[in-house]
Write a structure and sequence with these properties.
Blueprint lengths: L4 H5 L3 E2 L12 E6 L2 E6 L7 E4 L4 E4 L13 E3 L2 E4 L3 E2 L6 E2 L2 E6 L4 E7 L10 E5 L2 E10 L3 E10 L6 E4 L10 E5 L2 E5 L20 E4 L4 E4 L12 E5 L2 E5 L13 E5 L4 E5 L11 E4 L2 E5 L14 E5 L6
Antiparallel strand pairs: 1-26, 2-3, 3-4, 4-5, 6-7, 7-10, 8-9, 10-11, 12-13, 13-14, 14-15, 16-17, 17-18, 18-19, 20-21, 21-22, 22-23, 24-25, 25-26
């Protein structure tokens, strides 16, 4: 049973921290070895690093180029970024190589070249058995060229494999991994060419069984279709948070969970601040999210971090 509205509005809490991160959106928020990292976003932003033990933010180094619209993967001692955009709206281009950030030394490094015919940004990325799976995305920035591609990338060797296409093309979303399956939920088919940047949201969620190499479509569409959303998992739930759409100017505060056992969606406590273009994850007993944009489009960018106890997700 869902919590009451009154209970939901108090479930998340804003954190008062020492210092604050750089404002940004279309960025990445990820945990790696016990610390939190905000990376990329429009403009040349330094990494913002949060230490939960001291409740303190500090800035790290600046990436070698402007990077945005990507889902990071924490892998061993580094954070890997693949399926990245660079450049200004609406004619962004896909970055040609995989980029890595090493938290221990606060340094950046270019890794393997991405095959020219598979380059895109705004895609999802998940890690499974040492391989990174790159899901969907868009070729021509915000102009168009959304795809339903799936690729497997080996971060050790640079090998790429083309896997079966997803049932639906989408961009501006994050993928999630649970029990050997990839969940592609939320997102849209961005088309500035036809003046439909925010309009073509995708309500269906596609599910890929990695071992079986087969796609299926979830029995129920997402209750609140939106893009610019971010994803995570908890127990048997795939959770989609925030986002933007033509439904209203303000960014979405919805948090919705798909239970992979009964194959149904349910509402979870909404965010205190609707936002899009960031990330969320579980650290110890809490879910954290930070930064992003408070309204559809690019303004205003925010710095606030909020969290919720994981136990509050079992509604």
């Amino acid at each position: 049973m869902n919590q009451s509205t009154a209970e939901q509005t108090t479930a998340w809490e804003l954190l008062e921290t020492i210092g604050e991160p750089e404002k940004r959106h279309e960025a990445a928020f990820v945990e790696c070895n016990g610390k939190f990292y905000l990376l990329g976003g429009r403009r040349m932003n330094p990494v913002s690093i949060y230490d939960p033990d001291t409740n303190t933010w500090k800035n790290g180094s600046i990436p070698p180029m402007e990077i945005h619209h990507f889902q990071p993967v924490a892998y061993k001692d580094r954070i890997i970024m693949v399926g990245v955009m660079t450049g200004p709206f609406p004619t962004e281009t896909a970055v040609e190589r995989v980029l890595e950030y090493y938290p221990a030394t606060d340094t950046w490094s270019w890794s393997h070249e991405i095959p020219a015919e598979r380059r895109r940004g705004g895609s999802g990325a998940v890690l499974y058995n040492g391989k990174i799976y790159v899901v969907c995305g868009i070729i021509h920035g915000h102009m168009g060229g959304y795809v339903n591609w799936l690729d497997e990338y080996d971060p050790e060797t640079g090998d790429w494999k083309t896997l079966p296409d997803a049932p639906h093309a989408r961009d501006h979303f994050q993928a999630a991994l649970l029990d050997g399956k990839i969940y592609a939920g939320g997102g849209r088919r961005t088309s500035a060419e036809t003046k439909q940047v925010f309009d073509l949201v995708e309500p269906e969620m596609d599910i890929y069984d990695i071992e079986a190499k087969t796609w299926t479509v979830a029995k129920e569409p997402i209750p609140t279709p939106r893009a610019g959303c971010f994803s995570m998992t908890n127990l048997k739930d795939v959770i989609i948070l925030g986002g933007e759409s033509m439904a209203h100017k303000e960014a979405h505060d919805q948090v919705e969970a798909y239970n992979t056992l009964n194959e149904k969606w349910r509402a979870l406590p909404p965010l205190l601040i609707g936002r899009h273009g960031t990330g969320a994850f579980i650290h110890e007993n809490y879910v954290y999210t930070c930064s992003g944009c408070r309204c559809r489009g690019g303004n205003p960018e925010i710095t606030e971090m909020e969290r919720i106890e994981v136990s509050r997700l079992s509604t």
